[in-house]
Amino acid sequence: MDTKTKEEMESQQYRFAGSHSAVKVCGWTKNMIRGRGGCYKLKFYGIMSHQCLQMTTCLSCANRCLFCWRGHKEPVAKEWQGDVDEPDLILTRSIEAHIKLLQGFGGNENADKKVLEQSQTVRHVALSLTGEPLIYPKLNEFLALCNKQNISTFMVTNGQYPKHLADMDQVTQLYISLDGPNEEVWKKIDVPLFKDSWDRMLQSLDLMSTRKDRTCIRITLLKDMNMIEPEGYAKLIERGSPDFVEVKGYMFVGASRQILDKSNMPYHEDVVEFTKDLIQYLDDYEIVSEHIPSRVILLAKKKFKINNKWMSWIDFKKWHNLVNSDKDFSTEDYLLPTPETGLSGKGTKDKIEKDECELD
How far is 178 from 228, CA to CA, in rounded Å? Predict the structure, then answer.
């Protein structure tokens, strides 16, 4: 990365952890410390937003997604280039940078002091900040280090590296971004570098269907662009057979504002309406919950409804005990009840929060 781009990213509150990894504090981490509530991963899965580290092990990406907040001067690459930092260096420096970025809350009268103190202990890593974390050559060692330190791992991939995905060890929850119901729309939205990008996506979905970790497909909806053909999305979802599906509205933030228009950002009602159309084509899924500020709806396989109670939250203590053991286990072995479910009927057309957009 050139010096100018690095300086530009640092001015946007990115911090670098070694030569190819970066950290940025999520807006929901800050909201949690201020007592304004947590992100959708708290509501859906039980992640404590104030103890979540948002970072990536690789700044490069093989896609130029229209909706991404990445600056378009940030690196793109099909394969790994340059040096390879050690996992312990990346994790240690990432946590140090994360905690340092939160120091300003020490003098903030609106900060919840107990929550701020808890935020100094990282319990979750969201490998979803920017770039493609999957291609870091020592990713499995990094995951093992997180497991050893009782840090959960939520990792997002763009589906362009099926061979890397096949070799990746278990994570707490694996995401694949799916932003179009067919090849033409998907390429228009994700702007991939690989000539065989669609085949790579399909291979990744096939691999997702065989994995033992919790899996999720995330669909980012852009109004007047990819909110079409719910039956096409459904076919791809069935191919990947994820445990969960997140249908999320695009947020008009970051560098995407130079490409898209604010009118491309759907209201929560729009996301709800599209999700209701989508669920008609998914016999094995039901709508579970929503997070209105993030404009996202959670779908889950019906197997997660046990004794008429949704069980999408994670028992992180059980997860760490299992992943650090030699036992064979399944996603059903570390479930907790979902405290809040259903659609509220409220929306976002009359009120748009200034700081509603989380960066994950």
Answer: 13
**What is 47-58 written as a DSSP string?**
--GGGEEEEES-
- The model's pLDDT over 192-212, given as tens digits with 9 standing for 90+, comes to 999 999 999 999 999 999 999
Residue 61: domain span: 3-328
pTM: 0.94
What phi, psi does 173 have (nearest 5°)? -150, 130
Query: What is the token pair recorded at 313?
Result: 């939250």
CA–CA gap between residue 72 and residue 94 (Å, rounded): 23
Q: Is residue 14 part of a domain?
A: yes
Task: Quickly list H helices, 125-182.
Answer: 139-148, 162-167
Taking CA atoms, 57 is separated from 22, 256, 323, 334, in Å, by 7, 22, 21, 27
Residue 61 DSSP one-character state: B
Question: Considering the domain boundaries, does residue 87 fall inside one?
Answer: yes
- Sole residue written with tokens 């009927």: 345
The answer to whether residue 355 is domain-embedded is no
Q: Look at residue 359 and tell me if it is in a domain.
A: no
Give the mean model confidence (pLDDT) for residues 161-182: 98
CATH number for position 55:
3.20.20.70
Nearest to 21 by CA among 116, 78, 89: 89
CA separation for the pair 204, 176 (Å, rounded):
8
How crowded is residue 330: how many other Cβ atoms within 10 Å of its Cβ? 10
> For residue 287, which phi and psi values (nearest 5 degrees)?
-75, 130
Residues 54 and 128: beta-carbon distance below 8 Å = yes
pLDDT tens digit sequence for 259-317: 899 999 999 999 999 999 999 999 999 999 999 999 999 999 999 999 999 999 999 99
Is the separation of the CB atoms in 200 and 135 below 8 Å? Answer: no
Total domains present in the chain: 1
Length of the chain: 360
Residue 52, Cβ neighbours under 10 Å: how many? 28
Count Cβ atoms below 10 Å from residue 185 Cβ, excluding itself.
17
CA 19, CA 198: separation in Å to the nearest integer? 30
Q: At 321, list the tokens.
A: 């005990």
